[in-house]
Write a structure and sequence with these properties.
Chain A has 243 residues and is an alpha/beta fold. Helices cover 49% and strands 15% of the residues of chain A. Chain B is mostly helical and 79 residues long. Classes of the chains: A alpha/beta (243), B mainly alpha (79).
Chain lengths: 243, 79
């Protein structure tokens, strides 16, 4: 079960906590992986750690040209793209009335628009092959809202709508589209929280712990596998019980 | 039927899973052959692959029947 031998996966944000764990887990299940991110040297180090079946594809997701080139580059490197993990995301937190236009534009561009463009390009390849797995990492705050994250929560809610539509349109072509909506996961992004914020969050989590990137990676492996259900728009959450 | 016409017909039969005798020049992909809008997008992609040419969106919109496709490809096919 969950064997990914012979499958080719493109993972964005692979230098991050969750993206790295997903790339590693897909690779461990036998997939060839193309790891993408902005920091070339970190990607190279990660690739060296993984060993064979790895391609490094640096990409700046705020650049339209970079985004449009990424799926073709992954196809050129691996011969195909069976699995797309649209994971990369940024935050530019501020109180709603103090959010600047560029905070809004940057977050929407990287989190939502790049996801759209990558999924569009990947779906074109996948529908020809009658197999594809699009997995987008959204966030539980895209459903709940979160003070200080008007831009981020909007981008993540947008991903959920996009993925549900994609799943419904291409289900008959063997292409599934799913979201994973992590709760608070221990990563550099949440390490930036102060103690008070962390306490407030943990008070709401029945398991009283932050999730781990490996929790999310396990869900991604399942959704990427042949065993995943072909019915569209399953939204998975991993929140250790909250909300 | 021209050689290109035969190749078009073969692609349509394979993609839509229809009887070869239904695939005549006047047959509309959607009205006569049961294609949905996504099927027509896929057909255009398959034509592009088979004939090594690009079919721009505005041209694709005018390809409604088997004959339309054959006519377009007789002019534009590169392979």
């Amino acid at each position: 079960m969950f064997d990914l031998t012979g499958k080719a996966a493109l993972v964005t944000g692979a230098t991050g906590g969750i993206g790295g764990a997903i790339a590693q887990a897909l690779h461990a299940q036998g997939a060839t992986v193309a790891i993408s991110g902005t920091r070339r040297e970190v990607l190279d180090g990660f690739a060296a750690k993984l060993g064979e079946r790895v391609h490094v594809l640096p990409c700046n997701l705020s650049s339209k040209d970079d985004v449009e080139a990424l799926v073709p580059a992954a196809e050129a490197a691996m011969g195909q793209v069976d699995i797309l993990i649209a994971n990369a995301g940024i935050t530019r937190d501020n109180l709603f009335v103090q959010l600047r236009d560029e905070d809004w534009d940057d977050v929407i561009a990287v989190n939502l628009t790049a996801t759209f463009r990558l999924a569009r390009a990947a779906t074109k390849l996948m529908m020809r092959k009658r197999f594809g797995r699009i997995i987008a990492i959204t966030s539980i705050v895209g459903v709940t809202g979160n003070p200080g994250q008007g831009n981020y929560t909007a981008s993540k809610a947008g991903i959920i709508g996009l993925i549900k539509t994609l799943g419904a349109e291409y289900a008959k072509r063997g292409v599934t589209a799913n979201c994973i909506a992590p709760g608070f996961i221990k990563t550099p992004m949440t390490d930036a929280l102060n103690d008070k914020q962390r306490e407030t969050i943990l008070a709401k989590v029945p398991a009283a712990r932050l999730g781990t990137p490996e929790d999310i990676a396990a869900a991604a492996v399942y959704l990427a596998s042949n065993e995943a259900p072909t019915s569209p728009d399953r939204r998975f959450t991993s929140t250790a019980g909250w909300p | 039927m021209s050689e290109i016409g035969e190749r078009v017909k073969k692609i349509v039969v394979e993609h839509l899973g229809v009887e070869p005798e239904k695939v005549v020049d006047s047959a509309s992909f959607i009205d006569d052959l049961g294609a949905d809008s996504l099927d027509t997008v896929e057909l255009v992609m398959a034509f592009e692959e088979e004939f090594g040419c690009e079919i721009p969106d505005d041209a694709a919109e005018t390809i409604l029947t088997v004959g339309d496709a054959t006519k377009f490809l007789e002019k534009n096919a590169k392979s």
